[in-house]
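job 3f2a | input accepted
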Amino acid sequence: MEIVAINQISPDQVIFFAWKFVTINATLVYTWLIMGILVVGSVLITRNLSTERTMSRWQNLMEVIVTGIRGEIREMAKDGVDTYFPFIGTIFLFILLSNLLTFLPGYVAPTSSLTTTSALAILVFFAVPIYGISKQGIIEYLKEYIRPNPIFFPFHVMGELSRTLALAVRLFGNLMSHEKVVAILLAVTPLFFPIVMQALGLLIGLIQAYIFAVLAMVYIASATQTHEEGEHPPKTSS
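job 3f2a | predicted structure (238 res):
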């Protein structure tokens, strides 16, 4: 079993069910698992919310996470926090939970599959113009692709595509490489060192979730910033 785990490049290769054109692999199963945990967990935590000083530990944890995410969004977007929070918060929690469950035996993070990371990056790719057009209007948003000169249009398009690719490959590469290193160490070294690596992996998973969410918000904030705002930044009081 350990040798199989080492040789697997992606959870896409672990097939649980196949029938004709229908294939259910580990990536799909664990993605559904993460989504189920998030949905059920949110329902259980929010069904008995309390405004009193005494509240459940889960509500405390939820408020810390929500406050932290909203604070990060506010730092980059300044306004419209409620608009961006559902999208950015969901991406962050999905990646975070996917990465933190790697300590479970037999579990493989769906974010170690290029399929999953590409899907997340594509979501960001479409979210950027959607938020940009909703804020600036379609004409003003499209004008950004020909500023300061129409000759820069292909470079703007290439930039959009390259950063989407970078988002997908960065997350996939970091998580996949860590899982393979831990698998190899479990096979050839004593128990203590892999445990340390696993703890380090949890930290890496948290950092990767943060980086992905922050980059997504940076791209969205850039798209929603009007041309006038870019030329005339807000004045600060002395």
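job 3f2a | Confidence is low (pLDDT under 50) at residues 1-7, 230-238.
job 3f2a | closed
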